[in-house]
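For anyone still unconvinced, we reproduce a single protein record, the chain in one-letter code, the fold tokenised, and leave readers to judge:
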Amino acid sequence: MLKVKAISSIQIENERVIVTEWTFAPGAETGQHVHAHDYVVVPMTTGILRLVESAGIRDAPLKAGVSYTRPAGVNHNVINANAFEFRFLEIELK
């Protein structure tokens, strides 16, 4: 089965931050990855992202404009569980 990859577009990268816009088609995923930096996510869409983590699989309901933060070291795959495109900004703090 062919997996659809989420599309990342770096908007800003300097000595302090990396700002990336992520766009997920329905069912698209990032692939398993580990975050090297603390980060903030700013959802641009309201919906569900499915997280595949070492502890299992969980669905995270997100609301457009309601941000959250996570520490460096997070290891997961992020999947769009919606029947529509999902987008968010990821701000990594160096």
User: Anything to note?
Assistant: The chain has a mean pLDDT of 97.
